[in-house]
């Protein structure tokens, strides 16, 4: 509880400070102030454990600047995730375990530094492609030669101070969301933060936070997670009660995550970070998907702005969408962007890249077995859902479609809740004890459903072939 109070106080202070931060017009001054406040936040939470972050910054910055841009992203990835594993294993090695929120800072720093190395690698690849096209153009090719973006030029000329400012700027340093170097740099150098309705965007998010926080407190008081670890829970409660207990525990988890992520987004919106004109078709994590700054010069004040670049969660769609697969897209979207861009799309094997991405996500979350049970369990549920959507929902209409969608929605939240209890119980012994107390019914049910679904699919395929053959024979007779 003490950690949560410190966390909330720091987030509230960061949100309030944004009102002053975005008014700095001098980029260098803005960098210095943002970094100074960020270091103060890290020091307040971490104490001497802050040395871990400084060491990671130093090694990663040296790799990014001095290693070949062809491999700096791989070297940085290996170092940062290796150090993250070591950082979380300190307690097992007999040292003091870092505070919980220090772990969150280390998690975000890992994404930022590894992401920066990948951005440098991308900029290097673009520069080489442009050089090649220029050579072709001088050989008589009349096609227009592309130019390197200003951000890409900056990435290829990074110094230690640039990386330090990006790593420790107070916006996102505590709990995210993940912000690319480009988004950070745009907030420093472009005028959009002074033109967007930062207060209005922040207030809109703050309006719903009391609801989620209140639901979290009420439901966690009635159905505390700790009770699922008590002897009474297993000896005096029925099988149905134990099985259904995953619903309130995952509801509590969702409300806590919604509260924390929206507060983190408020830090960004109040500071003006992630503000772009809506005409840029901005996407979470990525930022603008279409940019033409020159055409906007002089009209910045008349444009409509949004903060999609730092939008980390879509609560409404997470809750109301029908399928597990859809819900995953609306959850922790900036981190998902990182995983998609730097793991999924870069992984050499298409066959195993989904599993590899989820494995990296589990490693990023922590060393506890519960993270692997939960996150790596998703690839085994998704094919079942996809199969039944294809068999029954895809071509359904009217009331039948609605009934099937509702059943799919219930199945979605049961899957999230059943897998999510492992995420919350953390250790193998607690997870195994709980799952065995409900006879592993979730896994048994999913195996049975998959088997039945495959049989139905085969029968339908055989029936379709038989019908096609009969139609062909009838056509020949005619």
Automatic annotation (TrEMBL):
<feature type="transmembrane region" description="Helical">
    <location>
        <begin position="403"/>
        <end position="426"/>
    </location>
</feature>
<feature type="transmembrane region" description="Helical">
    <location>
        <begin position="5"/>
        <end position="21"/>
    </location>
</feature>
<protein>
    <recommendedName>
        <fullName>Lysophospholipid acyltransferase 7</fullName>
    </recommendedName>
</protein>
<keyword id="KW-0808">Transferase</keyword>
<dbReference type="InterPro" id="IPR004299">
    <property type="entry name" value="MBOAT_fam"/>
</dbReference>
<feature type="transmembrane region" description="Helical">
    <location>
        <begin position="209"/>
        <end position="227"/>
    </location>
</feature>
<feature type="transmembrane region" description="Helical">
    <location>
        <begin position="71"/>
        <end position="92"/>
    </location>
</feature>
<dbReference type="GO" id="GO:0016020">
    <property type="term" value="C:membrane"/>
</dbReference>
<feature type="transmembrane region" description="Helical">
    <location>
        <begin position="104"/>
        <end position="124"/>
    </location>
</feature>
<keyword id="KW-0012">Acyltransferase</keyword>
<feature type="transmembrane region" description="Helical">
    <location>
        <begin position="362"/>
        <end position="382"/>
    </location>
</feature>
<keyword id="KW-1133">Transmembrane helix</keyword>
<feature type="transmembrane region" description="Helical">
    <location>
        <begin position="33"/>
        <end position="59"/>
    </location>
</feature>
<dbReference type="Pfam" id="PF03062">
    <property type="entry name" value="MBOAT"/>
</dbReference>
<dbReference type="InterPro" id="IPR049941">
    <property type="entry name" value="LPLAT_7/PORCN-like"/>
</dbReference>
<feature type="transmembrane region" description="Helical">
    <location>
        <begin position="432"/>
        <end position="457"/>
    </location>
</feature>
<dbReference type="GO" id="GO:0044233">
    <property type="term" value="C:mitochondria-associated endoplasmic reticulum membrane contact site"/>
</dbReference>
<comment type="similarity">
    <text>Belongs to the membrane-bound acyltransferase family.</text>
</comment>
<dbReference type="GO" id="GO:0071617">
    <property type="term" value="F:lysophospholipid acyltransferase activity"/>
</dbReference>
<dbReference type="GO" id="GO:0006661">
    <property type="term" value="P:phosphatidylinositol biosynthetic process"/>
</dbReference>
<keyword id="KW-0472">Membrane</keyword>
<keyword id="KW-0812">Transmembrane</keyword>
<comment type="pathway">
    <text>Phospholipid metabolism.</text>
</comment>
<comment type="pathway">
    <text>Lipid metabolism; phospholipid metabolism.</text>
</comment>
<dbReference type="GO" id="GO:0030258">
    <property type="term" value="P:lipid modification"/>
</dbReference>
